Amino acid sequence: MKLDLTLKALANDRRLQILEWLKRPEKHFPPQVDGDLKLDGVCGCSIAEKLGVSQATVSEHMRILAQSGLVTGKRIKQWTFYRRDEEGIAGIKSRIVKTL
Known about the structure:
Layout: H1 3-10, H2 13-23, H3 25-28, E1 42-43, H4 44-51, H5 55-67, E2 71-76, E3 79-84, H6 86-99
Antiparallel strand pairs: 1-3, 2-3
């Protein structure tokens, strides 16, 4: 993964907000019918609603975050659930420290 792509992903306030919410999903999102908030992640529909944008916009944000190694997506039925990739985030932090 290229560090420049990750830094570009983090340069967007909405993506940073999503990452912050996903840090403590039980605090920021209501319980879900399908998928456990912590184990499976948060449904993209819930993220779109909380952010006040379309599902297509959230899908694009989440695609960028996933390609950057910051989140992972999981399909359950017809929905995609997202959670932080803590291992990926730790690796990115390490690369930033080494680079700087």
